[in-house]
């Protein structure tokens, strides 16, 4: 009986996986780190792709098919571990038979990762993967970094379409020759003195630990650059000018050398304390109503740090307590409370981190249909499929402000769960931008629609 039950359970899990992978579209939570997610978004942003096809999978990878507007098929492999995507490659045709016994598969993985990044929208991802001291890149009689720069300039947009790749074996190198009808041939060679597995391991380590040439430590001139973009603009004017091109999320995992200095710099009005890498940022409430406290859990590795919201909520029946916040959930069932309460700390701390670089760590609400209504002299309405774009936009403008955010209660109305948040951005002179934020929860208990109604402090310019 036990064996039959186990087999039935295995079949049910298998069917569940197939259903979820049919039109598999990765979300931020499907990646093992933010670097891989940004890489995915960069690759996807180069052209409009149809992805409504079944996705194949094994215990180690997912294979996903796309078609572009010309009907050309593009296949991508996502390596995954513990249900998280760890690396991405664009499947490439070859003129030779690939036999794992030849130990050539790791080289194939590298060059398919290279092609994937060559088809990205940002150059930084391909520069991250190439170590010119260990890999020989040739293009148009140029080698190394010059070859890569020239390739990037001349690569076909939106993507390169390759002919089958040739294998070139010399006495001391293993090479691959790439041909395309839209650009000149290029060659990637691996000197045999290097172990490709070591190279791949080093690349994985750089997923967070990126080159300081392109990602320098946080410096004051960066804030000066932000100020120059918003100088002389009211909040309403700034949103109108920049809504279509919001700032990108910044990867900071290897740029922060001292967490105490980082948090003190970003939150000068908060008290900062630490106990066993649990950090607490505290500030007096806004008008004795809205809280601005943030609690964080910090993981410190050899070359990077990661910061997470501390999920230290307490449930007392149908009342949720998070620090000094108390949220009434009395109209929800026990099941609904257990699911929704899990992500409320992240949502609250995400909003309280606006105006600081901490938001880059806590940002999660990326692919959610959202509306922004701005009430100034003229009512303006903006729509986006990414709530994180709104938060990143406000994050840039509210650099010198202190944030307060709270949720009054979470209600169930006519079978639908909804709740409302109140946001205050207080400037050093005491003036405030205010926002009401309405959250709609789907039948799967996930936030699926957000509306922000923003009331800027009238007449205030930066």
Mean pLDDT: 82
Oligomer: single chain
Q: Radius of gyration over alpha carbons?
A: 25 Å
| Widest β-sheet, arrangement of strands | 18-17-22-21-20-19
- Principal-axis shape equals elongated
Structural domains: how many: 2
Q: What's the N-to-C terminus distance? A: 71 Å
Largest sheet data: 6 strands, mixed
Give the low-pLDDT segments.
9-23, 210-225
**Content-based structural category:** alpha+beta
Topology record:
Elements: H1 2-21, H2 34-44, E1 56-57, E2 61-67, E3 73-81, E4 84-90, H3 105-118, H4 124-129, E5 136-139, E6 142-143, H5 144-154, E7 166-169, E8 173-178, E9 186-191, H6 196-205, H7 220-230, H8 235-242, H9 259-266, E10 271-275, E11 278-282, E12 294-300, E13 305-309, E14 314-316, E15 319-322, E16 325-328, H10 334-340, H11 344-352, H12 359-362, E17 369-375, E18 379-384, H13 387-397, E19 402-413, E20 416-426, E21 432-441, E22 447-455
Parallel strand pairs: 17-22
Antiparallel strand pairs: 1-2, 2-3, 3-4, 5-6, 5-9, 7-8, 8-9, 10-11, 11-12, 12-13, 14-15, 15-16, 17-18, 19-20, 20-21, 21-22
Give your account of this protein's structure.
Helices cover 28% and strands 29% of the residues. It is of the alpha+beta class and 462 residues long. The protein has two domains: 204 residues, no CATH class; 236 residues, no CATH class. The chain has a six-stranded mixed sheet with strand order 18-17-22-21-20-19, covered by helices on one side. A five-stranded antiparallel sheet has the order 6-5-9-8-7, with helices on one face. A hairpin with a 3-residue loop joins strand 7 and strand 8.
């Amino acid at each position: 009986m036990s064996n039959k039950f186990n087999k039935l359970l295995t079949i049910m899990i298998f069917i569940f996986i197939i259903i979820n992978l049919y039109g598999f579209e990765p979300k931020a939570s499907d990646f093992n780190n933010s670097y891989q997610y940004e890489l995915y978004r960069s690759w996807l942003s180069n052209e409009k792709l149809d992805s409504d096809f079944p996705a194949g999978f094994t215990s180690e990878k997912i294979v996903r098919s796309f078609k572009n507007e010309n009907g050309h098929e593009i296949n991508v492999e996502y390596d995954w571990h513990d249900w998280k995507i760890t690396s991405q490659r664009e499947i490439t045709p070859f003129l030779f038979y690939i036999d794992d016994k030849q130990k050539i598969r790791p080289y194939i993985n590298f060059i398919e990762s290279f092609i994937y990044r060559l088809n990205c929208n940002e150059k930084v991802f391909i520069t991250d993967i190439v170590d010119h001291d260990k890999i020989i890149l040739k293009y148009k009689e140029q080698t190394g970094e010059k070859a890569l720069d020239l390739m990037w300039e001349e690569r076909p947009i939106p993507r390169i379409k390759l002919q089958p790749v040739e294998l070139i074996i010399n006495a001391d190198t293993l090479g691959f020759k790439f041909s395309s009808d839209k650009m000149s041939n290029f060659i990637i060679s691996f000197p045999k003195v290097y172990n490709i597995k070591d190279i791949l391991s080093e690349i994985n380590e750089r997923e967070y630990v990126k080159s300081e040439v392109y990602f320098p430590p946080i410096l004051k001139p960066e804030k000066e650059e932000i100020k120059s973009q918003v100088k002389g603009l009211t909040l309403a004017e700034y949103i109108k000018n920049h809504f279509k091109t919001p700032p990108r999320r910044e990867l900071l995992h290897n740029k922060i050398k001292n967490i105490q200095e980082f948090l003190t710099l970003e939150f000068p009005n908060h008290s900062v304390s630490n106990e066993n890498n649990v950090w607490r940022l505290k500030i007096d409430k806004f008008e004795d109503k809205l809280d601005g406290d943030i609690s964080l859990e910090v993981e410190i590795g050899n070359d990077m740090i990661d910061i997470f919201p501390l999920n230290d909520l307490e449930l007392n029946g149908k009342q949720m307590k998070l620090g000094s916040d108390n949220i009434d959930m009395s109209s929800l069932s026990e099941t609904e409370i257990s699911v929704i309460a899990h992500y409320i700390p992240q949502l609250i701390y995400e909003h309280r981190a606006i105006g600081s670089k901490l938001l880059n760590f806590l940002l999660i609400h990326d692919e959610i249909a959202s509306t922004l209504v701005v009430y100034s002299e003229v009512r303006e309405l903006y729509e986006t499929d990414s709530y994180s774009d709104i938060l990143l936009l406000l994050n840039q403008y509210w650099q010198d402000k202190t944030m307060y955010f709270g949720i009054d209660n979470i209600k169930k109305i006519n079978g639908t769960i909804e709740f409302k948040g109140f946001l205050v951005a207080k400037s050093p002179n005491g003036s405030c931008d205010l926002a009401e934020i309405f959250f709609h929860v789907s039948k799967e208990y996930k936030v699926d629609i957000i509306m922000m109604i923003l009331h800027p402090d009238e007449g205030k310019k930066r």
